[in-house]
Specification:
Blueprint (H helix, E strand, L loop, with lengths): L5 E4 L9 E4 L10 H7 L5 E4 L3 E3 L2 E3 L3 E3 L2 E2 L1 H22 L5 E5 L1 H12 L6 E5 L17 E7 L7 H13 L3 E7 L7 H16 L4
Parallel strand pairs: 2-3, 2-8, 8-9, 9-10, 10-11
Antiparallel strand pairs: 1-3, 4-5, 6-7
Helix pairs in contact: 2-3
Length: about 210
């Protein structure tokens, strides 16, 4: 199993779903802790640091250019992250988490859903694009997913995010795609939508 530098916070609320926090390019295991606390009060938080460096900035997989991914590396890194999550569940005694990923972190979360869907119980994908041109044919039976795109995002084309939503839906996920009046950065609207989604996902019985 590939090791990840990571941070773990034990949950304080019974029944609160654990959250897997996945940072954007240049972030680390501390970046999304406050966001996790805001959208999922009392949840256990598992926050790994990406193992790939791009000009010294941590990421979760390699890219060849802006918006052009090394898909072989995406597949390998998704497996590594999935194995880490499985091991962390055993170590910390948590259930399958809901992923909360931003930008590069949202893209690796999407790759997990498409390649190792059993690892996650849900996902909030903030500013995500498709990680695979031709995704694996995995079944995602009823997993709740929210994609939140920025209407003025100069990095993530909304049609690309919509196509990701279609890919996930076609494989069985329950997908909601919301577009907020924002750029690539996060706003209070993202926080509010993510919090409401996680609260609903936590109280919806698994299929």
């Amino acid at each position: 199993m590939t090791a990840f530098v990571h941070r773990f916070e034990k949950g304080s609320a019974a029944g609160a779903p654990p959250i897997l926090l996945l940072h954007g390019t240049g972030g680390n295991e501390n970046d999304l802790i406050d966001l996790g606390r805001a959208v999922a009060p009392g949840s256990a938080l598992l926050s790994p640091r990406g193992n790939v460096l791009e000009h010294g900035m941590p990421r979760f997989f390699r890219r060849l250019a802006e918006g052009v991914f090394d898909e072989d590396d995406v597949k390998r890194r998704a497996d590594e992250l999935a194995d880490f999550v499985v091991a962390a569940r055993r170590r910390y005694g948590i259930e399958a988490p809901i992923a909360l990923g931003f930008s590069n972190g949202a893209n690796i979360a999407a790759a997990l859903l498409l390649q190792r869907p059993e690892v996650l119980s849900g996902a909030v994908l903030l500013r995500a694009i498709m990680p695979f041109a031709e995704p694996p044919a995995a079944s995602i039976p009823g997993t709740p997913v929210m994609i939140i795109s920025g209407a003025q995002d100069p990095i993530v084309p909304t049609p690309n995010a919509a196509q990701l939503a279609t890919q996930l839906h076609e494989r069985g996920a329950h997908v909601e795609h919301r577009i907020v009046p924002a750029g690539h950065g996060l706003t209070q609207s993202d926080v509010n939508l993510a919090a409401a989604f996680i609260k609903t996902a936590a109280t919806t019985p698994a299929l």
